[in-house]
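Re: weekly structure request thread

Next one in the queue (147 aa):
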Amino acid sequence: MEPQFEELAQRITRDVSAAVSKDVTAAVTKDVTAVVTRDVTAAVTKDVTAVVTRDVTAAVTKTVNSHVTEVVTAAERRLSEQARINAETVRSEARLAAEGYAATLDGINRRLESLETAVTVRLDDHDKVLANHGSRIIELEQKQSPA
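Done, posted below.
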């Protein structure tokens, strides 16, 4: 080929090569960048999501367990204290009832003793009256019967 055509062919080859290389590089770089970005983003998102989910689940579980433990412990303390107070109240009520029962029995005992004294006095008086009456009847019978 003639030198001037050869030079023109080389220049066209070089210019076309540069333009095509630039366009292909831009297109391929853009597509490759998009694919790599998408794949890396998906992988990183999946890994980060798994790690965050695991860490958040562990933190929430720890917090919930701690809170539940605190609530249960506080409830046990309150219930234990309430049971102790209730037991003291029952003891106090039983003591008061026993004291009232004892006082009632003492009152009944005093009244029975007083009644016994009164009955004893009356029976003694009755015995004396009967003895006196009996002796008077005997005396009258002796006066009325001729001996």
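The chain is about 95% helix and 0% strand. The mean pLDDT is 84.
Next request, please.
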